Amino acid sequence: MSRITINDKTFEPSISEAEIKQRVKDLAQKISRDMEGKNPLFLAVLNGAFIFAADLMREMTIPCEISFVKLASYQGTTSTGKIKEVIGINENLSGRTIIILEDIVESGLTMKRMIESLGTRNPESVHICTLFFKPDRQKVDLSIDYVAFRIPDDFILGYGLDYDQRGRGLKDVYTLVSD
Q1: What number of CA atoms fall less than 13 Å from residue 148's CA on the CB side?
Q2: CA atoms of 89 and 44, how far apart (whole Å)
Q3: Cα–Cα distances in Å, from 137 out to 16, 100, 125?
Q4: Which of 58, 64, 146, 151 yields a CA-CA distance of 20 to 30 A from 8?
Q5: What sign for the dihedral angle of Cα 149, 154, 158, 160?
Q6: Residue 91: which pLDDT band, with cuts at 50, 70 and 90?
Q7: To 10 degrees, the CA torsion angle through 133, 55, 67, 134?
Q8: What span, in angstroms and rounded, lies between the C-alpha atoms of 116 and 93?
Q9: Does 108 have pLDDT greater than 80?
Q10: Are the CB atoms for 161 and 174 separated by under 8 Å?
């Protein structure tokens, strides 16, 4: 792994594909134990969580389902703070155990909005599972049930995360080098 440049930004490797895959496998094992007998519905937040969701689903050992929702709050390397639901949820959530799959939780505003939206559909329970969590950026109180990596407040890309729609397909995670 070596430094890469995308558009006008330089990134250095920070988390290897092997480490990510191991953490995803560990999360799947924990969720499978915790959700035994429940047939949870995973709601993966697009676009960033699609790779994470696919890898996690392949490691699950219990019956489960998956669907996708698209929320947008990013522009370039900064959150706009305005969350817009682009693609909604079509499944009946009443009485279901829901696990939201997110690529990264920073302020928590996106998750708060999603939980509020889901609450109107009478799920049995709602859980949050995130690949990355930036505790220093958190603005709202959230209960995050499953976290693969707690990371500092750095801009990252790769493994589904992007910079202006580029870099999502990188197998490793890269951190922005300070200008």
Answers
A1: 26
A2: 11
A3: 23, 19, 25
A4: 151
A5: positive
A6: confident
A7: 0
A8: 13
A9: yes
A10: no
Site of tokens 């559909």: 121
The residue written with tokens 């603005």 in the block is 139
d(CA 27, CA 39): 16
- Report d(CA 153, CA 162) in Å as an integer: 16
pLDDT digits (tens, 9 = 90+) for 35-77: 999 999 999 998 899 999 999 999 999 999 999 988 755 555 5
Place of tokens 């930004």: 9
Paired tokens of 93 = 């959530």
Within a 10 A sphere around the Cβ of 38, how many other Cβ atoms? 15
Instruction: Report which secondary-structure segment, H or E, holds 83.
Output: strand 78-87
Q: 105: which 2 tokens? A: 């939780």
Q: Give phi and psi for 89, each to the nearest 5.
A: -105, 130
* DSSP letter for each residue of 120-168: TT--SEEEEEEEEE-GGG--S-----EEEEE--S--EEBTTB-BTTBST
DSSP letter, residue 48: T
Buried b (16+ CB within 10 A) or exposed e, 152-164: eeebbbbbbbbbe
pTM over 0.85: yes
Helices (H), the chain: 17-34, 50-59, 109-119
* DSSP, res 84: E
